[in-house]
Structures are given as structure tokens and as C-alpha cells.
Write a structure and sequence with these properties.
Blueprint lengths: L1 E12 L2 E13 L4 E5 L6 H8 L7 E6 L2 E2 L5 H11 E4 L11 H6 L9 H14 L15 H13 L5 E5 L7 H17 L3 E5 L3 H4 L4 E6 L2 E7 L1
Parallel strand pairs: 3-8, 3-9, 6-7, 7-8
Antiparallel strand pairs: 1-2, 1-4, 4-5, 9-10
Bound molecules: adenosine-5'-triphosphate (ATP) and magnesium ion.
The site of magnesium ion has 4 residues, from helix 1.
Length: 225
């Protein structure tokens, strides 16, 4: 489903060159739940952004769903994302002028999906995440953890084939964190969703099928749970 072969990513800012990823080989199978761990700055988000077709690798190849995504043009990349991927970003990226419910379903309409169905799925997911009483709140009327849960609900609405989550539980207490991971686990088991989850918390990372630790842009170790 997701294949990275010798993938590197270099950021150049003036004279400073950062090797955020330095030769990653990784194969995530369809329906597999993988957690990515490792210290701050080790390249976790960079890797997720590449898999999420939000950025391009400097070297190596990345094949998702049998498609060499580096070869797609900008429009094809957008269509690919809408069709295949769901994201939960490290920073919640909600639209301030939309309510929790609108933030959850409106971005999902972009793929030409049915309005009522999206709205209904959005509400179901928000309730599941404990936000049934917050549907009409705007982001500034929500706590950080609540905003994070809205961004999770948004990623789940279309039941994307691949779910990418960058520290989705960073602002949550341990009970809500566990609830989120259990929802992921349930989706993974019920609809065979492929999940790549970044987390700092090993206790949560262990709920995945496999854990991968990055260090200085390379895979430091790997473990099946
Ligand atoms: N757009 C960018 N331009 C320049 N450097 C960047 C950019 N994005 C990331 N980096 C650098 O690349 C390295 C890896 O960053 P990345 O965000 O992937 O780390 P991370 O493992 O997700 O860390 P954290 O746990 O703190 O989120 C860091 O040294 C960072 O400063
Ligand atoms: Mg990060």
C-alpha cells in the first residue's frame, strides 16, 4: 500500500542544509496499523507529509496504492489526497469561521460527496469523540483538546483508505487519548483502514501492529506488537 525506498528529504534555508530524512526504507501493508516514534526533530512529520503527498522527497521513491506520487502534477496530487487520504495534523488546522460540525464535514464535500451523508457522518464521529454538545461551537470556543478531536472527526468522515495522524493525542488527557486510539483500532479492524500514527507516547504506540523509531532521519529500530 505504502512503499518508501531510500527516501531522503533535504531542506535548504540559505547556507543551512537540514537532512530531515536520510534514506528511509519502509513498506506498510494494506490494513496495517503502524506507529512512528522517536525524538523531536527526528523526521517523523517530514515522513508523514511525504506519505500524505503534501511535499516531495529529494531522493528515492514513494509508491502509494501502486502510484508513483512524485510523478503526479499538482492537480492530480490534490485529487489523490481527496480520494485516498485522511489527515490529522500536528497543529489542528481548523477554519476559524466554521463551527465544529461545519469544520468536520465541509472539507469532506470537496470530493463531490453527498452533503447530507457527510453532515450525518460528521455528527456521528463528533459524538463518538465526546463532542455531541459542542457541534455549534467555533474553534475559539473550544479547548485545545476539543479542537484536536474535531480535526480527528474530520479525518474520519470519508473513511479514507489511508489515515495519517501526526500526534493526534498530544493535547488530550489519558482517557481521551485512549478513546482516540481505540477508535483508530476499531476502524483498522472493521474496515481494514491502513493507519500511520505519529506519537510520543509509547503506551499508545504499542496499540499498533508495528512500531518504528526514527532517529536523525533514519529508522533506528522496529518492533512488532
Ligand atoms: N519546512 C521546513 N524547512 C526547513 N526545515 C524543516 C522544515 N520542516 C522540518 N524541518 C527540519 O527537519 C527536521 C525534522 O523535522 P520534523 O518536523 O520532521 O521532526 P519531528 O520528528 O516531527 O519532530 P517533533 O516531534 O518535534 O514534531 C528538523 O530539524 C526541522 O527543523
Ligand atoms: Mg512533528
Amino acid at each position: 500500500m505504502i512503499k518508501l525506498k531510500n527516501v531522503s528529504k533535504t531542506y535548504s534555508m540559505g547556507d543551512v542544509v537540514v537532512n530531515a530524512l536520510a534514506g528511509i526504507d519502509l513498506h506498510v501493508k494494506k490494513g496495517e496499523f503502524v506507529s512512528i516514534m522517536g525524538p523531536s526533530g527526528s523526521g517523523k512529520s517530514t515522513m508523514l507529509h511525504l506519505i500524505g503527498v503534501l511535499d516531495k522527497q529529494t531522493k528515492g521513491s514513494l509508491i502509494i496504492n501502486n502510484i508513483d506520487v512524485a510523478k503526479l502534477n499538482d492537480e492530480e496530487r490534490t485529487t489523490f489526497r481527496l480520494k485516498n487520504l485522511g489527515f490529522v495534523f500536528q497543529f489542528y488546522s481548523l477554519l476559524p469561521e466554521l463551527t465544529a460540525l461545519e469544520n468536520t464535514f465541509i472539507p469532506n464535500l470537496l470530493g463531490g460527496k453527498n452533503f447530507d451523508q457527510c453532515r450525518k457522518n460528521a455528527q456521528v464521529n463528533l459524538v463518538k469523540l465526546g463532542l455531541g454538545e459542542r457541534l455549534k461551537n467555533y474553534p475559539h470556543q473550544l479547548s485545545g483538546g476539543e479542537q484536536q478531536r474535531v480535526s480527528i472527526a474530520r479525518a474520519l468522515v470519508n473513511k479514507p483508505e489511508i489515515l495519517l495522524a501526526d500526534e493526534p493525542t498530544a493535547s488530550l488527557d489519558s482517557k481521551s487519548s485512549l478513546n482516540v486510539i481505540n477508535i483508530f483500532k476499531q476502524l483498522n479492524e472493521e474496515i481494514k483502514q491502513t493507519i500511520v500514527l505519529i506519537t510520543h507516547e509509547e503506551e499508545l504506540g504499542k496499540k499498533a501492529d508495528r512500531g518504528i523509531w526514527l532517529k536523525d532521519g533514519v529508522i533506528d529500530k522496529e518492533k512488532r506488537f
